[in-house]
Protein: glutathione transferase
Organism: Mythimna separata
Amino acid sequence: MAKKLHYFNLNALGEPIRYILHYTKQEFEDIRHDRETWPKPEIKENLPYGQLPLYEEGEKVLHQSLAIAKYVARNTDLIPVDPWLQAVAESTAYTIYDFWQKLMAYRREKDPEKQKQLKKELFEETIDFFFSRLEKQLKENGGYFTGKLSWAEFVLCGIVEASNLMLDTEIEKKYPTIEVVIEKIRNLPGVKEYIASRGTYVLPKIK
Ligand SMILES: N[C@@H](CCC(=O)N[C@@H](CS)C(=O)NCC(=O)O)C(=O)O
C-alpha cells in the first residue's frame, strides 16, 4: 500500500518519522512543503487539523507526529515487547515534546524583548531541566531509554537536531550519553544514507 509522509522541508516533528521509515526499510513518498510560503489554503484547509505532519497509507490518513512515529515503528524491534516498557517509551517521547513546546513558545514569540527572555530561560533552566533527566534515564538503562533501541531515541534525535538548528547550539555536547545515542541513530543503516542524501537544513522564516 502506498505510503506518503507530508511535512515541511525541515527536521522537527517530521524527521523522527523519516528516520524510522528509512531504518525499517519502508518505502514511502517524502512530500515536503515549503514552510516559508505556508500556509497554502488549498492544502491547509484539507488537513484534519490544519497542521503537518500527515501520514497516508492508501486511503487512510493519520495526523499527530507521535502517533505516526509509533505506528510506522509497529511490528519492528523499535517497539518494546514488555507493555510497561512500551509505556516508558511513550512517556519519554511525551517528555521530549514537553521540551519542544517550550522551544516553540520561544520560536513563535513576536515581541523581541519577550523572545530574548524566553531564550535566556531556555539556556539557563529549561534545557538542563529536561536533558539532565533524559541523560540520567539513558545512563541508568544501558544507553537507551528502555534498555534497548526503541522509537523514543529516534524522537530524541530529531528533536535535538531541530532544537540545535533553532537555537544555533549543540545541546547534546553537555550530555555524553545523549550525544552517543544520537550519533548511533545517525549512523544506523538507512538513516546514514538518508542523511547523506538529504543535505543540511536551513531554518525557515515563519509568519
Ligand atoms: N501535535 C501536532 C503538532 C503539529 C504542528 O505543530 N505542526 C506545525 C509544524 S511543526 C504546523 O503544521 N505548523 C503550521 C500551521 O500550524 O499552519 C503533532 O505532533 O503532529
Notes: The helical segments are 15-23, 41-44, 65-73, 83-108, 112-140, 151-167, 176-186, 191-198. Residues 83 and 89 are 10 Å apart (CA to CA). The mean pLDDT is 97.
